[in-house]
Each structure stands twice: as structure tokens, then as C-alpha cells.
Amino acid sequence: MKKYRKIYIEITNNCNLNCSFCSKVTKKRRYLSLDEYKEILDKIKDYTDYIYLHVKGEPLLHPDIIKFINLANTYNLKVNLTTNGTLFNKYSKELGLCTNLNKINFSLHCENNKENFLEDIFDNIKDLNIKTTVIYRLWTLSNNELDEKSTKIVDKIKEYYNLSPEVVDKIKNENNIKINPQIYVDKDNEFEWPTVNNYNSNGYCYALKTQIAILVDGTVVPCCLDSNGIIDLGNIYNQDLEEIINSDRCKKLKESFQDRKPCEKLCKSCTFKERLN
Predict the structure, then answer these.
(1) How much is the pLDDT for 65?
(2) d(CA 277, CA 262)
(3) Buried b (16+ CB within 10 A) or exposed e, 59-72
């Protein structure tokens, strides 16, 4: 078994939207080069079977996105994407030819002004390989109820896929509901991106146990929520991954998670771990 269930690779921290719920990127905006990407794959190929081509940014903005997915296939790596969906119709046919595209998550709650946004996504899903899982993701209110925007989206899904009242009821009251053999609707409470603040809480986290993330400048961080590289564990371009994960800082943080008393200030301030406890 590989060490990590997934490794996040941020291929760009640029985005074509400016959604209010996303934290602001403080690092220099850039795109991963093909050579940089290949170097990363060379160094992580023995540590996971699944890579996620995002942390921040919109992966479909990257001009080499199809090359990136296909290159991962030569390393026997499955690829997962999270996208705002606004560029999906541009790439849907090419994505459909990527046999290692394992899953694509659509953030349907993104804030965009694109005409026929949902219909463009729904109409082009048919281009994907049937083995690619599709997740329609929605934010909910703190009590897990749908807000007005998400309710309208569910109504659109119901209409397009001709869903029964029973399935719609499940979508409203449960998570991760299958609406056909390929497509799921999932929802969750909107979370706050962690910042270093005075809020402190204990708790367990999967960071460094099941996942690790690599930012577009090569900075290795414990998880996908450290998008600005506050917990800098090392740099994949200057070090091997084994050296990074065996550093004193990395070991100390992993042990502190096991003790449910995170030692890093960002992790103490992160409320996401409370969902895991």
C-alpha cells in the first residue's frame, strides 16, 4: 500500500473567478511548467496512486491540463480534479479521452456570471469516460439545510435529470447521493479557510497521514488547506519527498495530530479538523 491516499499538486494558483468564500492567494501567481510537473511526478510516484491537480486556482486554466493528466497516466497515477466548471465545455471532449481521470468535482456554488452555466456542465458530462466519477458539490447553511442558491441548483438538477421526489428529498437531507451510475450530488457546510489567529482548538487531522500537498512554487505543506505555505515543510524541487516527510518539523506535527494537540499555530486555528472529531 502506498503511503498517501492522495497528493495534491497545485498546477496553478490563478483563477478566473473571485468567489467570496475563497481565501486570498498571497503567493506569486504562476503556472507549473511541464518540466516542473514531471520532476514532481518522478519524486511522488512511489508514495500514492491518486493525485489531485488543485489546491487553489482553477486547474482548467492551465494550458497544458490535458498533457498533465496524460503524463500522470504514464506513471500509473489516477487524477482527480476540482473545478468551478466555467471552462468545462472547452475541454470536455479531451477530458473524455483521459482514461486515468478518476473523478471530477464541480463546485456549483461558485460565483460566476456565465450564461447557462449549469446547462453547459450537464450537457457536456456525456463526453466523459463512463469510468470517471462526477460530483456536483453544493454549500449548505450551518444546519446543513440548503440555502436559496443551492435550492435553485437542486431544482435545476431535478429538472435536467428527471429525478423523482424521493431522490430530491435524499439530496436535501443526506450527503453523497447517486443520481445515476456516474453522477453524485454532495453537499457540506461552507468552511472557513484557516488563518493564523487567536482561535485554538485540539483535535485529530488526516494531514500527513493520508495526504500531503505541493504548492505551485514547490513548497510542500501538510494539507490542501495551507494554500499560502504557512507550514513550509520543504521544497520538492530542492529535496526528495522522503527527506521532507522525515524532517523534524514534519514528524513533530504528525505526532501532535496523533495526540490530538496540533503543534502548529495554523493547525490550532483550523476549524476543519473539528469535522473529523
Answers:
(1) 98
(2) 13
(3) bbbbebbbebbbbb
CA 7 to each of CA 73, 85, 100, 222, 233: distance values in angstroms, whole numbers, following the listed order: 15, 22, 15, 10, 14
Count other Cβ atoms within 10 Å, centred on residue 187.
Answer: 24
Strand ordering across the sheet containing 177-178: 177-178, 183-189, 133-140, 101-107, 78-83, 50-52, 6-9, 211-214, 219-221, 234-235
State the Cα–Cα distance between residues 212 and 214, nearest whole angstrom.
7
The residue behind cell 485554538 is: 200
Contact 88, 60 (CB under 8 A): yes
Q: How far apart are CA 212 and CA 208, in angstroms?
A: 6
What's the grid cell of residue 65? 491540463
Tell me the average pLDDT across 112-132: 96
Cα separation, 29 vs 20, in Å, equals: 19
pLDDT tens for 224-255 read 999 999 999 999 999 999 999 999 999 999 99
Give me the count of residues in the chain. Answer: 277
* C-alpha span between 3 and 9 (Å, rounded): 16
Closest CA to 11 of 46, 84, 63: 63
Mean pLDDT score, 158-182 = 96
What phi and psi values does residue 81 have, to the nearest 5 degrees? Answer: -125, 145
Whether 105 shows a pLDDT value over 80: the answer reads yes
Residue 35 has a pLDDT of: 98
Q: In sequence order, what are the residues at sequence separation of 6 or more whose Cβ sits closer than 8 angstroms to the Cβ of residue 4?
A: 47, 48, 210, 211, 212
Q: Which of 246, 252, 203, 194 is nearest to 223 (CA)?
A: 194
pLDDT at 198 over 80: no
The answer to whether the CB of 233 falls within 8 A of the CB of 19 is no
